[in-house]
Amino acid sequence: MNKQVENSEKFRLRLLRERAGLTLPELPRQVGVSDRNVWDWERGLVMPRLDRAVILARALNVSLKDLCRAIGIEVEDLPSN
Questions:
Q1: Is the separation of the CB atoms in 73 and 48 below 8 Å?
Q2: Distance of alpha carbon 8 from alpha carbon 32, whole angstroms
Q3: What average pLDDT does this structure show over 12-29?
Q4: CATH number of domain containing 64
Q5: Per-residue DSSP letter, 45
């Protein structure tokens, strides 16, 4: 995989945040975490806990599957319900 593809995949969560119209300071307030937590999630340094992921998906107005894809978790074979 080339670096350009890796970089675009690395920042998928940031793109979801931007599409939701949220700034980096706004999203952590909605999720109840620090700016650093979101910064780390967006860069793929750590993954959010499941309870935070649910709140994060709601704040971003995306499904948990879409959120998982954005943070690099393969979910294609999971049932939708």
A1: no
A2: 26
A3: 95
A4: 1.10.260.40
A5: S
In a domain, 81, yes or no: no
Closest CA to 51 of 32, 66, 70: 32
pTM: predicted TM-score of the whole model, two decimal places: 0.82
- Let me know if residue 47 belongs to a domain: yes
CA distance 64 to 54: 7
Contacts of 6 (CB under 8 A, 6+ apart): none
User: Domain range for residue 56?
Assistant: 3-70
3-10 vs 12-19: helix axis angle to the nearest 10? 50
Amino acid at 11: F
Report the SS3 class of residue 36. helix
The confidence band for 9, taking pLDDT boundaries of 50, 70 and 90, is low
